[in-house]
Design brief:
heterodimer, A: about 220 residues, alpha/beta, Rossmann fold, six-stranded mixed β-sheet, four-stranded antiparallel β-sheet, 7 helices, 10 strands, B: about 220 residues, mainly alpha, 8 helices
């Protein structure tokens, strides 16, 4: 089986800083990797490279069989689930409207039903009519996870996965990762909660000032 | 998913957001109307003069406040929301088109309300009012397109507040000149077809430029 992602000596340089240095990483199907590192070590940038949103400035890589930096990456982006620090919600829309928009844009035949089902699955059925702007951080994070239930990604990228989540929502992360791996996907989870993530993952890596090594 | 379905989904979401918050119209519209209200106080009760300058002042208000409308509206979604649309493989041209369409609708509403205020305050004499059915939407489309395009360029450069007016003004002035000349033609009873055509051609050029540059501008923003 071909790897879901392969990075070979990838570097990302910004005008005043080298964010990633010579990063090599292979993600096989069914593999979950925990990514640790201090603030500013390059974890978010590495996730963005894997999400195809940031093109490497040196080295090469492939994600879901598309070469990083090529226009063809756009074709596989819907198969990648990225949850970042900031919930990806439109503030003036309700949670249900946000998810209906996602469902429409992913071609769902029944956006309302799909959104309602996803919100129910993450325990937000009762808050579906609430504006995103009026939701707590935890609810917004749950809503982000509900989006992943709609898009069902092959490659799951979770940045600070457990921040702002209560125990039941943390279980949700575990269920999402488990379902992705069971379907032959892979996951990269950035978290500062080492023990919690250790149970979910098959490999632990450490980013130190842009350089990747074993944790 | 097709370009048009993506565009329709985004128009629907943006319209819902706008009607819910009223951010643009409720904030900008009263100031536009107030600007038209203040000018007669400065000029005095010279009704002949007001009749003559009314349409020109109307277009000046539309230009100035239109820039504010497009600047507020074309603020791209923040990092996470923009990333979301990219991860869902939404065509950047669909994003451009949706934003321009919603801007267009808002500017038409703005022009209609401010236009009614102008008619009440300035009592302009216009023949061939039917032409306004073309002039108002075409001028609004031009401003919406140039504002949306400038917003995309400014986002890439990371200097939105200062850059958008600088980018919009040079293109907006010919648009507004054409619109003002068209209404002046209506006042004098002369032909305005060439001005309407100029508006339509400018809109078409801006639409093509916006759609073609949407993808490279989005990628440069990453």
């Amino acid at each position: 089986m071909s790897p879901l992602a392969e990075l070979d000596g990838v570097g990302v340089r910004r005008p005043n800083a080298l964010i990633l240095r010579d990063v090599s990483l292979t993600l096989a199907p069914g593999e979950a990797v925990a990514l640790f590192g201090a603030n500013g070590s390059g974890k978010t940038t590495l996730l963005r490279v894997l999400a195809t949103l940031t093109a490497p400035t040196s080295g090469a890589g492939r994600v879901l069989e598309r070469t990083l930096g090529s226009p063809s990456v756009e074709e596989v982006r819907p198969r990648i689930g990225l949850v970042g620090h900031e919930p990806a919600l439109f503030e003036a829309l309700t949670l249900a409207e946000n998810l209906r928009l996602v469902a429409r844009l992913t071609g769902s035949g029944d956006p309302a039903g799909t959104a309602a089902g996803a919100l129910e699955a993450v325990g937000l059925a009762g808050a579906s009519g609430r504006l995103a702007a009026d939701c707590s951080n935890g609810m917004r994070r749950r809503s982000d996870f509900a989006r992943l239930l709609i898009t069902r990604p092959d490659l799951l990228l979770l940045d600070e996965a457990h921040v702002g989540l209560d125990a039941s929502a943390s279980d949700l992360v575990e269920r999402l990762v488990g379902a992705t791996l069971a379907a032959g996907g892979a996951a990269v989870i950035v978290s500062h909660e080492r023990e919690r993530v250790a149970a979910l993952t098959t490999r632990r890596l450490l980013l130190d000032d842009g350089t990747l090594g074993a944790a | 998913m097709s370009f048009w379905r993506q565009t329709a989904a985004l128009v629907r979401a943006q319209t819902r957001s706008e009607t819910r918050t009223g951010e643009v119209l409720l904030v900008v519209l009263p100031f536009g109307a107030a600007a038209l209200f203040v000018i007669p106080m400065a000029v005095g009760a010279d009704s002949a003069l007001l009749q003559r300058v009314g349409p020109g002042l109307f277009w000046m208000v539309v230009l100035l406040f239109g820039i504010v409308v497009t600047q507020r509206r074309t603020a791209h979604p923040s990092g996470a929301r923009s990333d979301l649309l990219r991860m869902l493989a939404v065509d950047p041209a669909a994003r451009f088109t949706a934003t321009a369409v919603v801007n267009w609708a808002l500017l038409i509403a703005f022009e209609i309300v401010v236009g009614l205020v102008m008619i009440v305050l300035y009592d302009p004499v216009l023949t061939g009012w039917a032409w306004l059915v073309l002039v108002v939407p075409l001028s609004a489309a031009g401003l919406a397109l140039v504002g949306t395009l400038a917003g995309s360029i400014a986002d890439g450069a990371g200097v939105r507040t200062t850059l958008v007016p600088l980018l919009v003004l040079p293109v907006a002035i010919p648009l507004l000149l054409a619109a003002a000349q068209a209404t002046e033609g209506l006042r004098l009873g002369t032909g305005i077809l060439r001005w309407v055509l100029l508006l339509a051609i400018t809109d078409l050029v801006l639409a093509i430029a916006g759609v073609l540059t949407a993808r490279p501008l989005e990628e440069s923003d990453s």
